[in-house]
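Look over this today:
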Amino acid sequence: MGTTQTNALAAPTDARANPNARRGDPPPPRRRWKSRVMLAAVVGAAGLFWAAPFLAARHVMFHGVELHGSGESVVRVEFNDASFGWLSPIVLKEVVIHDFDGTPFARFASVVSERPLWQIVSDRSRPGRFLVRESDVTVVVRDDGSNFTDVLRLVAERRRGKRLGDFSLSVKSGRARVVDATGTRLLQLDGLALDLSVQRTMEKKLACAFTADAVHEGERLPVDLAFEWSGAAASDPLRSGTGQAVLQFAPLPVAGFVPRFAQIFPNVTLRDGRLAGQIQADWDFDETKKVRAAGTLTAQDLHVSLAGADGGSQELNRPLEELAFELEGDYQPDVDNLRITSVDIQSSLLTLTGTGRIEDLRGRFNVDLAGELRYDLAPFVDTLPADYREHVQIDGLRTRQFAVRGPLVSSADGSTRFDASQLAVEADVSWEQADVFGVRSQQSTLITRLAGGILELEPVSVPVSGGRWRGVPRVDMQRLPAHAAVKQGIVLEDIAFSREMCHLWLKYLSPPMAQATSVEGRLSISLTESYLPLNDMAAGRVKGTLSIHSANVQPGPFADKIINLVATLEGLIPGRQSKLLAALGGVWITFPQQVIEFRMAAGRVFHSTLEFHIGTVVVRTAGSVGLDESLDVLIEVVLPDEWFRGPILSDALEGQILRIPLRGTLDAPRYDRTEVREFGKRLATTATGGLLRNLLAD
């Protein structure tokens, strides 16, 4: 009863709700398919969303990642395994990074994020901390950079304009190798650990701590670097904000410093040796505008090669060298200039103190520095050939003032780098006393200029041996071996002769002065052409004139030989007895005022006619003297008329000139006796014929 009543009461209600419905018809189906589709879509989207990291990981594993830069530069990254999950950290295993050439240069056993994926995706500007284990990096250095700088430049290019928030990177158990283009290892770092962090709140903060052991011949040499900086978010850490840096390293093979050193000094190559250092710098470009830097560098068994533009080279060796430096300055951000209030550099070779400024720090890095420089010339003299080294003595050498000007940054192929070869250096050099190849100088000053690999020496006040040095030498160090040239004109003006000059170099221009035991007089030298390789003078070329104003010489072996010859000729003349042989060794020869042309080529010095007098006898020489002192000289002996007294000899032999070749060396000259014998025969014939004519006349 209860059930029937309930149904009956419900019928009118259904009828009222649907007037067209008939009693007993089934109810219409509800439209539930839309909600079910929507539910399925939501569930599918949620599932796809949840599976997206897995799918992305599969894609990364099979296809890798490519980073495209300007031009055709591409960096490819491969992964052997990748694990992405919204609630779990990112895990990448066996990561390999390829450089522009497609060569693997970095491998990581694993890269793991500290934050889960959903946090990284929700705020991409703050990726958080990443841990890298068992990294292995091979840096290949080239003349124009390295594969490592290539990749960094591409990453920086892609990040340009994008802000990166809190980020930190930790590298554990790393290894790095630096090799040249041929694969030769330059440096190996083991046990590498790196902690790098970037924080952005109201300002940006950078912090870096790096430690490693450089492996060399079984030794493990520590390297430590620490860097901290804070400043405006978009500013340059090296030109703004506040920061400090400390670098320490044990004696490392210099091969590891080659890439950076070659960029700054392109003509200098570090061949071998070790370098240790400790450098500290701090700067505050926000409030005090101060920058300070100090440190020491110690080189051991350093071998340096100086390269020239023509492919030549010159080697320099230093067993031990220590350099200490300090620098203080004020930065002017409105004009991007650094005013250097003091710079102090000290080493065994030089001491430098100065002030100045550096303009356009973000661009050309224009240097304008001036001050005082003192250095020891002895190491440079030691590089001269042994034959010359002992004849160069300079005391009290100092530089009163110096100036360094020019840009330190060069641009090429769209990239910039430090390049010291563009700097121009000028210094006022003076000395108390100098003796260079017998030319003596006291209280002298000259200006030295170095620009574009050319060293020029301009005399300001250089009195030498009672006269003046007026030459302007130029040393071309771009073409190696370096060579010197002297500006055309007078080089030595009205200087006094000295025994050392005669012993060292005048003997080639004027052989009769060779090994002179005493000399008096004055001379000048002018040059019209000069080319002198500093490591091989014999390969040089020189052309000029020797002006003898007057000279009296007590001769050496060469002139003694000629005196002996003249005495022999006088002794052949009937009725004359030479006094020269008895006085040999004490005879002075004299040189009248004259100009002799000379030139040096192929290791020999050629001279035009040179005249000197032995008593009343006029002697002339012409020919060449080798730098090995070998002789090829022709002697002309003008016999005086007073030797031929009487009508017979005077009529036949008056004005007689004998020409005699001279060979051998300056120490042991040998003359050809053929002309002497012929002269003797002419004398005998003339005397006999005269006697016969006298007998017939009687």
The longest helix spans residues 33-63. Residues 393 and 435 are 5 Å apart (CA to CA). The radius of gyration is 45 Å. The first strand starts at residue 65 and ends at 68.
